[in-house]
Design a protein that fits this description.
The complex is a heterodimer of chains A (449) and B (240).
Chain A: H1 9-14, H2 22-30, E1 31-33, H3 36-44, E2 52-59, H4 65-76, E3 84-88, E4 93-97, E5 104-106, E6 125-130, E7 133-139, H5 145-162, H6 188-191, E8 220-227, H7 228-237, H8 242-259, H9 263-269, E9 273-280, E10 294-297, E11 300-301, H10 310-324, H11 327-342, H12 344-347, H13 351-365, E12 372-380, H14 384-387, E13 390-396, E14 405-412, E15 415-422, H15 428-439, E16 445-448
Parallel strand pairs in A: 5-6, 9-12, 12-14
Antiparallel strand pairs in A: 1-4, 2-7, 2-13, 3-4, 6-7, 8-15, 8-16, 9-10, 9-11, 14-15
Chain B: E1 2-3, E2 10-11, H1 54-84, H2 91-109, H3 114-137, H4 143-167, H5 174-199, H6 207-229, H7 234-238
Antiparallel strand pairs in B: 1-2
Helix pairs in contact in B: 1-2, 2-3, 3-4, 4-5, 5-6
The chains are: A alpha+beta (449), B mainly alpha (240).
Amino acid sequence: MVPRMNTDVSQTIDKSLEPISFSKREKYLEWYRLDNAATLFTFVNSKRITCLFRISSELKSPINVANLQKALDNIMGRFPYYHVNLRTGLFWHYWEKNALSPKLMSDSKYPQQKLSITKKGIFPFRVRAFRNRIAVEFHHCITDGTGALTFLRALVGEYLHLQGKEVKDWLDIFRPNQMPEREEYEDGFKKNYRSTVPDPEKIVPSFHLPNKLEQKGIYHYTIGIVPVKEILKIAKKHNITLTDYLTAVYLYALQSMIFDYPKQLRKRMLKPIRLMVPVNLRRIYPSKTMRNFSLYVTPGINPKLGEHSFEEIIEIVYHYMRSEVTDKVINQQIARNVRGELNPIVKHIPLVVKKRFGKTLYNGFGEYLYSGVITNLGRVVMPEALQEEITDFQFFPAPSPVTKTGCAVVSYKDKLYINWARNIKEPIVEKYFFRKLVKEGLPVRIETN
Amino acid sequence: MTYCPRCGVEVEANKIKCPLCNTTLQPLDEEKPDYKSKYPDDVPTEEQKPPKEKKKKRLLAFEITSVVLVSPIIISITTNLIIDQTVTWSLYPTATLLLAWFMISAPLLFTKNIIAIAFGEFIPLLIFFLVIDIIDNGTLNWYVRVALPIIFSIGVAGFIIAFGTLKSKNKGLNIPAFILFGASIICLIVDVCVTSYINSALGLGWSLYVLVPAVLTGGFLLYLHFRVTRNKDLKRRLQP
């Protein structure tokens, strides 16, 4: 039997907000502020920097569109913080309750194209379907990978439930009959901000691929599928985690690519190779937030010092990760970002002016400092009764005109999906990366869009 | 199962070439499974406009400028002829618009030739003021003593600033410093010319008030450029 659906947003979150006074609660339901990380993403939203990342799930049977739309309608009440529209204020953007309900979209050959988030009635995400696949594309200004995955798991779970699958244990999957908790709304950055912590040290711009960008809107996928057990065995052999191992392979691939260029061309490319590796802060600071709560660390090597062996790179990544992924170091990034937002002068600068500076800030602190991005969403677990119905989960990074390629990793059941996305024609980094994995003795299957 | 012999990876059954290295793959004898593409075959919705060549863009700008400026010239001359049956006051707007046309066209037509641009800006100015002086009462009054030296000083200072900026290896605060020095020289010459013309004797007036702060500020900017900005890590560089 289908459980009672709570589709009315205000009704659904009513009980969860009992400690708040009536007047405050009404205000809380109608609108809320953007989190610290989100602000910058709204400034740079464009056809080139779409800030959209994607998580998809392939099912065993073709999608029943009517049921999927119904499932989406049902779960929206459980995610009231995503049932919003970005509005423009005098000093800041803010989220306002969206009067419409999100509609399904068909998928396209080149996904993750620009979403005009400031338009009235637009949701900060898309739900797409094609053949057996359900995909969500979330704008980074509303949430990070963890929030989007929670949403997709709830959507797939509810869809399969409507398709007649009986599930006894729903694990941690959000169900339409549950009440959202107040902590899911919280801005984790502001909660953990300490004003006395100093800024992190500045880093210099890194090596970037010299390849020419494709037309706006074209986004190529290269998906590498590897058995989880075997890759974990190899990572364990090197005594490092899976993320560390893949980061080392990525750095090694970029270095090999640079050293394969003719000497004259190579000279200009000998800049530090640095990767952006997002860290899920919910693992460091206990938080239930469904909004952005991740920052990054930047392991790297300097090819000017000479060609590093793979073992040397593994050592560098291992020690870097141990020393940098700590609350003390991450606190510095939180302090720098939140301090900027709380500055009374910054607060009172009109949004139009802030936007201009925001772009410069994004370039200065953002992608010019990295040669690529690798993000690991971890293992996706679904209730046992649904596992047979789901073939895979895949995760794709947002496009960047600076790093040009990016890698997002996720595992489901016995397979690891290493998903590369690029806005250049040549799969140059992918080639070096997967060839290295094959050399390490791993069987790799490649799929593309 | 199809494998790429160079990359060692397994690829999708329908692929003719390896998606990583573009190597042509050996077709398998075994029957291919019924393959369905995982993504639709549509093209991006928003096509990018083909980039226009720079030269074409410049010529288009020149054409638009010409059309925009010629129209008011024709209108003013025609109006003058209809009302007065002769060309009198319309010479002023005509001369001014022609000057604007020459000055806009020079950088559009001679982009890379700085000397041609400089002459394209400078000579029309000389002719313009000559014409304006003559239109007045048919003789030369202020042109030689006021207009000529001022135009020369502006031309020379502008040329030096532009040339210095283009040739400067480290562009920074030195550029506003050069501009300040150039502006000071122009002010000095304008002051000398105008004061001498009015008083019929050589003399200096207001320009000193401009000259002193401008030269001091320019000097400070040059100091910042060469000592501080260029050597960001001064402490580190000077450590024993």
